[in-house]
Design brief:
Elements (H helix, E strand, L loop, with lengths): L1 H5 L21 H7 L10 H23 L5 H11 L20 E4 L7 H15 L2 E4 L10 H12 L5 E4 L16 E6 L2 H14 L7 H5 L5 H4 L3 H6 L14 H5 L10 H14 E6 L3 H11 L1 H4 L2 H6 L1 H4 L15 H10 L1 H20 L36 H8 L1
Parallel strand pairs: 1-3, 1-4, 2-3, 4-5
Helix pairs in contact: 12-18
The structure holds 2-acetamido-2-deoxy-beta-D-glucopyranose (5 copies).
Membrane topology: Single-pass type II membrane protein
Subcellular location: Golgi apparatus membrane
Keywords: Glycoprotein, Golgi apparatus, Membrane, Signal-anchor, Transferase, Transmembrane, Transmembrane helix
Length: 406
């Protein structure tokens, strides 16, 4: 009983020198009285028991915290593990330490940020490693009603584990509906480049040929298809204005209606979510390093991804995507785009910084490049990828399967 009363004064009672630093300093008298005990180091069985009990309470508490929300266990483990990683080799062997194996992974892929390439790789990997790749047939619905969220989460949660679920969908809060929060991954790219890529893709399609755009957007009027990009921007067409330009952040912010309003609130929430729920948000401009980190973090899903990616057999796919009728907007129009996308850029730079930090922890060099005075458009990515959709557009991935089945 007596021991319990001492508890609030600080957990380290058996070591009196700890108490003056702690919250409620005892009176000078009691301090003096207790000092002589020190040389004897008198651990009674009760002291020991008390110590262990405190430890147990702490452990149970932390377990309880983890069970009732909070970041997924895997992310906590990973962070602790990364904190101690110091090796400095470049593309060296993976660390020998074994990470726990998350069996629920969600890739809520952002449109036109290389996800087609990654999905193609995932199809190959899922056969190789025997995980359950769950893709969705719905490609044009990123925001869901509460009921739809609940249903989808229930559906995902019942998938056979280990699974990797992927869909163009804004962040889903599993714990809000009593599910296990999965580990999230994603890839983004420079916002203006993403926008332009989508702008021209909607109009002129991709490598599948000239006629393809007629199949893709048959109802698009000619004026719209041949709308000059500068005119679209300078004349404030909806396609080139907010909220349509506020595209990447909602994928990380979530399903809350405010997540779609360009502003601080959505930005901050998106950043918070990146920290709490995303194992990795990569940068398309550095896709090889993204794949390398995925291989290190999630070997049960991504082991060998880099060699598949570099395999000439699969590489061939890369040059099927031809650049179509792209024109670069005028510097004036670009400035306006930057201005309209300032939150998107703040988010992009934040993610990029985190990504580089992670790379450094793994001893990967980030090629520090001075920011260009003018943005460099259409930086050739290792595998030039064109996402087939905007939010409202369809995303047919049948061709992927066709190629894969060859
Ligand atoms: C990392 O280092 C800290 C302090 O050195 C230590 O407490 C922790 O257990 C270490 N983590 C791992 C995973 O080794
Ligand atoms: C749930 O999953 C099943 C098969 O896994 C699928 O047929 C069904 O359409 C899914 N429902 C929703 C709402 O996604
Ligand atoms: C997810 O839901 C939980 C429980 O309702 C809530 O505490 C948490 O803040 C939510 N997280 C996000 C990012 O919305
Ligand atoms: C694709 O690459 C192959 C060899 O790398 C080359 O022969 C072919 O001409 C390329 N095709 C296109 C459309 O660039
Ligand atoms: C999504 O596409 C389907 C057909 O593929 C269409 O019926 C539906 O209306 C579309 N939904 C939205 C929100 O655009």
């Amino acid at each position: 009983m007596k021991k319990k009363q001492q508890h609030p004064g600080g957990g380290a009672d058996p070591w009196p020198h700890g108490t003056p630093l702690g919250g409620a300093p005892p009176g000078l008298g009691s301090w003096k009285r207790r000092v002589p005990l020190l040389p004897f180091l008198r651990f009674s069985l009760r002291d020991y028991g008390f110590c262990m009990a405190t430890l147990l309470v702490f452990c149970l508490g932390s377990l309880f915290y983890q069970l009732s929300g909070g970041p997924p266990r895997f992310l906590l483990d990973l962070r602790q593990y990364l904190g101690n990683s110091t090796y400095l080799d470049d593309h060296g062997p993976p660390p020998s330490k074994v990470l726990p194996f998350p069996s629920q992974v969600v890739y809520n892929r952002v449109g036109k940020c290389g996800s087609r390439t990654v999905v193609l790789l995932l199809r190959i990997l899922s056969e190789k490693h025997g995980f359950n790749l769950v893709t969705s047939d719905i490609h044009n619905k990123t925001r869901l009603t509460k009921n739809e969220q609940m249903e989808l989460i229930k559906n995902i949660s019942t998938a056979e584990q280990p699974y990797l679920f992927t869909r163009h969908v804004h962040f889903l809060n599993f714990s809000r509906f009593g599910g296990d929060q999965p580990v999230y991954i994603n890839i983004i790219r420079d916002p203006v480049n993403r926008f332009l890529s989508n702008y021209f893709f909607r109009r002129f399609g991709d490598w599948r040929g000239e006629q393809n755009h007629m199949i893709r957007t048959p109802s698009m009027r000619q004026e719209e298809r041949y709308l000059d990009i500068n005119e679209c921007i300078l004349e404030n067409y909806p396609e080139c204005s907010n909220p349509r330009l506020f595209y990447i952040i909602p994928y990380f912010c979530g399903q809350h209606p405010r997540c779609r309003e360009p502003g601080e609130w959505a930005l901050e929430r998106a950043k918070l979510n990146v920290n709490e729920n995303f194992l990795l948000v990569g940068i398309l401009e550095e896709l090889e390093d993204v794949l390398l980190l995925l291989e290190r973090f999630l070997p049960h899903y991504f082991k060998g991804v880099l060699s598949i990616y570099k395999d000439p057999e699969h590489r061939k796919l890369g040059n099927m995507t031809v650049t179509v009728k792209k024109t670069v907007p005028s510097p004036e129009a670009v400035q306006i785009l930057y201005q309209r996308m300032r939150y998107e850029y703040e988010f992009y730079h934040y993610v990029k910084e985190q990504f580089h930090l992670l790379k450094r922890k793994f001893g990967l060099k980030s090629h520090v490049s001075r920011p260009p005075l003018r943005p460099q458009f259409f930086i050739p990515t290792p595998l030039e990828t064109e996402e087939p959709i905007d939010d409202e557009e369809q995303d047919d991935e049948k061709w992927l399967e066709d190629i894969y089945k060859r």
